[in-house]
Specification:
The protein is built from four helices and 18 strands. The chain is an alpha+beta fold. It has a single domain, classed as Deoxyribonuclease I, Chain A (4-Layer Sandwich). Helix 2 crosses helix 3. It is globular, with a radius of gyration of 19 Å.
Length: 297
């Protein structure tokens, strides 16, 4: 009887491992806050090559810490606030990621700050089939000066990386246009036969409650663990996340690793440790925490 139970446990354990590797993905999204090229004319004077490299190392180590927690490297990593492809190439060539098989998906966008969305995807687990930048139209039918939505397509899966207009300056109407564009894109993907979509990003507001109808068509709100991704005036807000459609299950967790946090001396508790507070260098990575999506087919 004991031998039979052991055999059942071994077979069951093997089947779970096989399922987790073959029928699931780990996808991460992270607004990496002003990840500028140290050579750029847009960079602040205090943004140096040494500080840039330190940020590259910290981002790379965070991805490895995600692998430690979830048992595998992220198959795809969506970024917001990356300045250009050079930043991504340095991240992959000059850090602990250099021996891994990530490839870059990036396009320059019309954003006035010069920041873009980007995606890294592993060649071995998520081969890229196609990609494109998708402009967000303004109210006059032109192209909005904001971040393009990045579309990457794989076998039976599309990932859209978003960074919607900020809350500064009363830009709610611009966010509505960005959400409308996202809905239209997901609708067109499904109409074209794409069975699964995952839209991840910094939506610059909490869309997961009563306003979820403003997300992609027929969206299913993925799981949340009650923790925010950014702290503003002492309160955690959940403005980074995603919408999923066509999956068996999608679980979402904020990656609140202690390395990414520091004491909040003004309001108590903890807050994300930023790279800069004004011109003062603090050695952190971002004012946002990453979000991890465990995607099951």
């Amino acid at each position: 009887m004991k031998r039979t139970m052991l055999l059942i446990a071994l077979v069951f354990g093997f089947s779970l491992r096989a399922y987790s590797q073959q029928d699931s993905l780990v996808v991460l999204f992270w607004n990496v806050e002003n990840f500028f090229d140290y050579r750029s004319e847009n960079k602040p004077q205090y943004w140096t090559k040494r500080r840039f490299q330190a940020k590259c190392d910290a981002v790379a180590k965070t991805l490895l810490r995600v692998a430690d927690r979830y048992g595998r490297l992220p198959d795809a990593v969506g970024f917001a606030e990356v300045e250009n492809a050079f930043v991504l190439r340095q991240l992959l060539s000059e850090t602990a990621l250099r021996k891994l098989d990530y490839r870059i998906v990036h396009y320059e966008s019309p954003d006035h700050r010069g920041i873009d969305c980007a995606l890294l995807c592993r060649r071995s687990t998520l081969p890229l089939r196609g990609s494109a930048p998708k402009h967000v139209p303004d109210s006059a039918g032109g192209v909005m000066a904001t971040r393009d939505i990045l579309l990457a397509e794989f076998d039976s899966l599309a990932i859209l990386v978003n960074h919607h207009p900020s809350q500064l300056g009363g830009k709610a109407d611009r966010r509505e246009l960005a959400f409308a564009r996202l809905r239209a894109l997901t609708d067109s993907l499904h109409a074209a036969g794409q069975p699964r979509t995952l839209a991840v990003g910094d939506f610059n507001e909490d869309r997961w409650g009563e306003n979820r109808r403003s997300g992609p068509a027929n969206d299913e709100r993925v799981g949340r663990n009650g923790k925010g991704t950014i702290k503003y005036n002492g309160k955690w807000e959940k403005i980074d996340g995603g919408f999923a459609e066509g999956f068996l299950r999608v679980r979402e967790e904020v990656f609140d690793d202690p390395v990414l946090l520091e004491a909040d001396k003004a309001f108590g508790g903890e807050k994300p440790r930023r790279t800069f507070v004004g011109p003062r260098y603090t050695g952190g990575v971002s004012d946002h925490l990453p979000v991890v999506f465990l995607v099951y087919y």
